[in-house]
Amino acid sequence: MSINSIQNNENILYCLYARKSTEDDERQAMSIDSQIKEMTEMALKEGIIIKEIRQEKHSAKLSGQRPIFNSLLQDIRNGVFTGILTWAPDRLSRNAGDLGMLVDLMDQEKLQKIKTYSQTFSNNPNEKFLLMILCSQAKLENDQKGINVKRGIRAKCSMGWRPGIAPLGYMNRAFGGVKDIIVDPKRGPVVKEMFERVAYRQQSGRRIKEWMDKIGFTTRNEKKIQISLIYLMLRNPFYYGYFEYSGDWHKGAHEPLITKEVFDEAQKELDERCIPKVRGKTEFPYKGLFNCYTCGTSVCGEEKYRKKKNGSTNYHVYYHCTRSRNPNCKEPYVTEIDLIKLIKQNILNLSEETLKENLTSNIIDELYKYQPIVEEIEFYKRDDIEYDGKVDLKDIIVYACSKSPIKFRRELIQSLPIPKNLHNLLLI
Ligand SMILES: [Zn+2]
User: Fold this and answer.
1) pTM, to two decimals
2) Cα–ligand 1 centroid distance for 337 (angstroms)
3) Domains in the chain and their CATH numbers?
4) Do residues 182 and 255 lie in contact, with contact meaning Cβ atoms separated by under 8 Å?
5) What is the whole-number distance in angstroms between the Cα of residue 349 and the centre of ligand 1?
6) Helix or strand run (H / E) with residue 172
7) What residues are neighbours of ligand 1 (ion), with CB under 5 Å?
8) Residues of the chain with pLDDT under 70
């Protein structure tokens, strides 16, 4: 290593930024770990000092954004870093907005250098121009790829093959470059019987679960099935041969496990059972977990019924400060629905590492029990081929913070390193 390179770089505070590829398998050759390995080796060789390594593992499925990248930009604005080290320019910019922000930071001289494996971009007109060209090229390739992928998905659907991972009871198969969906010989017959038990013997979800546990039925992760997953499956027309994709219905090419008649009978039974529960003693799952920012008292829950003009009533649960310290506290009320949204947003802003550090192993074990249901729900929500059917702990936490049993949910939220003060409908 030359003295020059050390002198050149000694004033730059580098952050190593690594991000996993969202493209399909063959382009995923460079994993986050290998990106970091290659770049730290290069830094060592060139005498570059890396102040911090940040990795974007969460593929932005739920949030539609890159929390780690955004925090990196913020830290550059604040002078924490003055350089970025990354595998390739396309790791940094996925759209014109991201690229614009990087170039702006260079123009403002807050970002002095971007170093990739093969290039260096400093704050001079030529190198900034080259950076923009390379990023635009990556975007062009990506857009074209997106069009091809969409065309491929449409073709697949019209041939009757549901893209993505097949529902429980089926298996995805690939042979000689052809992909299809076949009945899972182990689980398929059980799923068929599950529908028949509901349709003709009026068995409840709870009965079904008892029976499935007794015969040793498991999900793809070898876990006992959850009752919520049973209900999700019982509502899925895929089992009698149809599926919805991107808002369109398709007749599946897969072998139906049940007839439409059995499915319809089961739906009738499910609808009848679905008697709205009378809300008895109301529980407020989120009470006492947050504090009022203005007066410092804890936040409690309250039910409110509002008569609407057409005569019907609107029901909402609100959270607000107890006003025990200051009866005139002006903090606004927040609905339970909005409070849950706030909690989820704040979880998405955290890295998976930070979350793990703050949770006990008991809580993490309990969370992984929800993995199968979260995977199944995500599967139905997904619209893109990029979805690999895998969910991470963060996805599970987001689910559990509104859907798990109240006692566990409270313990989980208490442990989460999210802001706990409520102020102007935000958590700060
Ligand atoms: Zn208050």
Assistant:
1) 0.50
2) 20
3) 3-145 (3.40.50.1390), 170-273 (3.90.1750.20), 282-428 (no CATH)
4) yes
5) 26
6) strand 170-175
7) 292, 294-295, 321, 329, 331
8) 1-10, 21-30, 57-65, 94, 176-177, 274-281, 379-389
